[in-house]
Amino acid sequence: MENGCEIPWSEGRWTHEPVRVEQDGDDLLVEAAEGSDAWRTTSYGFVHDTEHALVCPMPQDSAVEVGFVARFEEQFDQAGIFLRAAEDCWVKAGLEFADGTPQVGAVVTNPASDWSVAPVPQWVDRRVTIRASRSGDAVTVRARVDDEDFRLVRVLPLPEDAELEAGPMVCAPTRAGLVVRFTSWRSTAADGSLHP
């Protein structure tokens, strides 16, 4: 996987404006609104379309990486990457504090949401990177902490001709005051294959 190039924070547009955005050196501090979330229907019966995602176009045969510091402590605190093709066709992937522990996972929505997670309690207060690689009719999501190897999170279908936008995402469904420090946003070449 190539290093690629940094995407300036100023290049993106917010799907929904956060409470506060502040640049701190090269990092971006983003405060989420209480109740912000992205979900459609499944199991809960509601539609939430209030996530804070800073997105720009993601062409075919490319990948996007988002880095942030994982300081979560309240139910459903979350950050990661958001990929949006339409109001009812999107993906959020990243780290979410659920049921007392950080979980790495993804929500895939087309048009109803699903959710898959795996506990990663050792990722607290560390630098997390989420990577989404787009090739053909699929997106491959990987994640890592610090400089460890990327681990596979999800492979999901996406129409080849979808006009996709992607970038950093933060939500705080249950509380006010969540601030996430995003450390990087970069574009790279798509993964050469699913397996190393």
UniProtKB/TrEMBL annotation:
It holds the Pfam family DUF1349. InterPro entries: ConA-like_dom_sf, DUF1349. This is DUF1349 domain-containing protein.
